[in-house]
């Protein structure tokens, strides 16, 4: 009958559709990898010899006719807005795309993989409640006015370090294509055509936007503090280091803060040389020898690598062979834990640089949690309280902050460079806004030097696995464009009226537990004078020469408060 024939036709169509969709995830077809897999590929724009022609394309200043240009009041949203603009929506990673983890079903709870990439996460707003201040907000507490802002911020997303794990992984695949070739199937079939598309060290376009956006946000939150410069008849000095991405970081921040091209005329950007042997608070590892001795300066890397050696076994087994069909996904290459970390890093770096990475979809939610813990261990013991050289490296910035609080130049008992810090041209002491760009390791060293122990509340991180007993999470503290903000406030209702507090990525950090004389305060406030005197004591107790140059024995698993053991 017509009806039956029609049903049969529908059935055939359905079966065909199923066959086609099954074919698209076919794990039986093995693809031989091309000989170019893993080859480094790159482009170079602009072509050499090309320049902007400002004779034929004159700038606004030559053309004229700009129309009306009346200014308005400087924004002061931190002071005036009823709600704080937290960076915790999709905007924190726009325009990157990130898939759900491997194995997550249609009905699984959404899991944002980008928040589990340790220092490779894009920064996002952290809740004050994560460190114990349930009610605190970055908005200026009522009854207070902000008088000074100190910002220490990290560069945005970048390419990997030259010769790091992702590049080594590419070379391993390239070597395999030469040594008899390799073949892939299933989820790994993209590797048959994969090339290494990342450069090294530079900021990516998304990284630029992070620093630019941070500049925009800080102008909007704190722009009124510029009136202080106007009254004094000066423009600010903002600082950074000489590495290309650091210079571009400061430029992008300034572009966001002042506008393009206004930033070229409205701020002096001071570039401190970053190279071995030269003092620079923004690159203290160049002056702290023990930071470059593995048994002292990178004990975190060692234990993180050890943790990773066991954490990814089932994933490696899955990627190596399709257990369901007892069928290899890859032959001719044997994956190791090092490769698992490299592929996870490729997920992060390719997403930052290219907008998307096929590597991300290979890893499960558990893998991303382990990847984060790998970074938690690495940073806690390399640059946090578990490191014997963290506080010493952060001491330079600590001294500079205190110098700006007390209007007196610092002395030379750390990696800071007195050639600059002994001169108000290069080291002004009376700015209402300070903005220094640096690296994430230095931000963490600095937080350790500041004795902000609420960031590391709990027992030293367990070397075998995450016991969730410590408040430290790397992606919250050292992500791309992370920033440490100090608000100096005048609060007529308080005694004394001069108050201060610290924020990390919008989380207000309580100091009552680690700053003697600072009472518990729901807004994280403490007397300015008391905080300065606590920090002065902290400067005295951090022995830069011993921690950076002595021969002592340090081991992971201990909370050293960032200072070398006396042994
Ligand atoms: C894959 O191969 C197995 C074993 O040869 C076979 O049973 C299965 O039907 C094949 N699957 C597909 C999608 O071709
Ligand atoms: C690739 O092969 C070269 C030359 O044999 C070797 O030096 C290098 O260690 C290999 N690299 C990797 C990651 O396998
Ligand atoms: C301070 O910085 C200047 C400029 O980079 C450099 O020449 C000098 O050597 C530095 N001082 C020290 C002690 O490293
Ligand atoms: C630190 O290392 C540098 C470079 O190797 C060396 O010249 C210097 O003497 C070392 N400093 C100390 C105190 O050991
Ligand atoms: C994971 O695999 C490595 C290397 O094969 C092995 O040394 C380690 O014991 C394994 N760990 C676990 C928990 O199975
Ligand atoms: C991978 O490991 C297997 C088993 O240990 C070994 O037989 C094979 O030679 C290895 N392949 C490569 C490419 O290293
Ligand atoms: C450079 O740093 C060292 C500590 O490593 C310090 O002794 C020296 O005075 C500093 N020099 C200058 C010019 O800042
Ligand atoms: C710092 O400046 C003071 C006063 O100008 C000068 O006496 C001193 O020698 C300077 N110190 C250094 C290390 O440049
Ligand atoms: C700081 O040093 C520079 C270069 O030596 C000099 O031109 C400038 O006048 C100094 N600034 C002050 C305030 O002494
Ligand atoms: C600008 O701010 C600084 C730091 O708070 C302060 O010392 C100075 O008096 C202010 N200047 C003016 C003109 O208000
Ligand atoms: C640093 O914090 C700890 C508590 O975490 C506290 O015992 C210690 O006194 C603090 N150090 C200074 C110099 O305030
Ligand atoms: C540091 O001390 C250890 C143990 O006493 C010794 O083996 C090592 O040679 C010393 N290292 C240096 C650089 O003096």
TrEMBL record:
Q: What class of enzyme is it?
A: hydrolase
Q: Name the Enzyme Commission number(s) assigned to this protein.
A: 3.1.3.8
* Signal sequence, start to end: 1-22
Question: Per its UniProt record, what SUPFAM superfamilies does this chain match?
Answer: Phosphoglycerate mutase-like
Q: Which domain of life is it from?
A: Eukaryota
Record's InterPro entries? Acid_Pase_AS, His_Pase_clade-2, His_PPase_superfam
Q: Name one Pfam family in it.
A: His_Phos_2
Per UniProt, the keywords (alphabetical) are: Hydrolase, Signal
GO molecular-function terms, A-Z: acid phosphatase activity; inositol hexakisphosphate 3-phosphatase activity
| Similarity annotation | Belongs to the histidine acid phosphatase family.
Recorded protein name is 3-phytase
From what organism does this protein derive? Hyphodiscus hymeniophilus
């Amino acid at each position: 009958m017509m009806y039956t024939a029609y049903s049969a036709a529908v059935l055939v169509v359905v079966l065909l559709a199923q066959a086609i969709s099954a074919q698209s995830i076919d794990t039986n077809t093995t693809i031989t990898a091309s000989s170019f897999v893993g080859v480094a590929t790159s482009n170079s724009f602009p072509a050499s010899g090309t320049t902007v022609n400002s004779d034929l394309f004159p700038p606004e200043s030559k053309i004229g006719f700009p129309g009306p240009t009346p200014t308005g009041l400087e924004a002061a949203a931190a002071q005036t807005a009823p709600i704080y603009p937290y960076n915790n929506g999709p905007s924190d990673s726009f325009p990157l795309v990130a898939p759900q983890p491997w194995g997550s079903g249609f009905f699984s709870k959404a899991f944002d993989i980008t928040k589990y990439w340790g220092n490779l996460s894009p920064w996002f707003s952290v809740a004050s409640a994560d460190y114990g201040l349930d009610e605190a907000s970055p908005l200026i507490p009522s009854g207070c006015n902000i008088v000074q802002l100190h910002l220490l911020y990290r560069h945005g997303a970048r390419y990997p370090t030259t010769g790091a794990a992702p590049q080594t992984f590419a070379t391993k695949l390239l070597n395999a294509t030469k040594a008899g070739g390799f073949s892939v199937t299933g989820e790994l079939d993209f590797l048959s055509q994969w090339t290494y598309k990342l450069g090294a060290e530079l900021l990516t376009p998304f990284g630029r936007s992070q620093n630019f956006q941070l500049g925009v946000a800080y102008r909007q939150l704190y722009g009124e503090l510029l009136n202080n410069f106007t009254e004094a008849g000066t423009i600010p000095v903002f600082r950074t280091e000489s590495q290309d991405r650091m210079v571009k970081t400061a430029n992008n921040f300034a572009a966001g803060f002042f506008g393009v091209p206004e930033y070229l005329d409205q701020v002096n950007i001071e570039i401190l040389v970053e190279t071995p042997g030269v003092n620079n608070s923004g690159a203290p590892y160049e002056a702290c020898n023990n930071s470059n001795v593995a048994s002292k300066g990178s004990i975190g890397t060692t234990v993180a690598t050890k943790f990773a050696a066991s954490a990814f076994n089932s994933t490696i087994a899955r990627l190596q062979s399709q257990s369901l069909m007892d069928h290899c996904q890859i032959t001719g290459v044997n994956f190791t834990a090092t490769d698992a970390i490299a592929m996870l890093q490729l997920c992060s770096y390719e997403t930052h640089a290219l907008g998307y990475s096929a590597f991300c979809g290979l890893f499960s939610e558990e893998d991303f949690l382990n990847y984060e813990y790998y970074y938690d261990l690495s940073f806690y013991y390399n640059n946090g309280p578990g490191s014997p050289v963290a506080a010493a490296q952060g001491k330079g910035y600590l001294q500079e902050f205190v110098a700006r609080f007390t209007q007196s130049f610092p002395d030379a008992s750390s990696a800071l460079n007195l050639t600059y810090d002994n001169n108000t041209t290069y080291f002004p002491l009376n700015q209402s806004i300070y903005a220094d760009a640096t690296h994430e390791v230095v931000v963490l060293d600095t937080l350790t030097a500041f004795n902000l122990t609420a960031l590391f509340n709990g027992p030293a991180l367990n070397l075998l696995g995450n016991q969730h007993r410590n408040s430290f999470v790397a992606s919250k503290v050292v992500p791309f464009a992370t920033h440490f903000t100090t608000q100096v406030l005048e609060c007529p209702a308080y005694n004394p009226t001069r108050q201060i507090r610290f924020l990390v990525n919008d989380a207000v950090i309580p100091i009552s537990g680690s700053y003697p004389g600072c009472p518990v305060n729901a807004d994280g406030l403490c007397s300015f004078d008391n905080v300065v005197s606590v920090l002065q004591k902290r400067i005295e107790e951090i022995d830069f020469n011993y921690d950076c140059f002595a021969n002592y024995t340090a081991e992971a698993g201990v909370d050293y408060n960032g200072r070398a053991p006396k042994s």
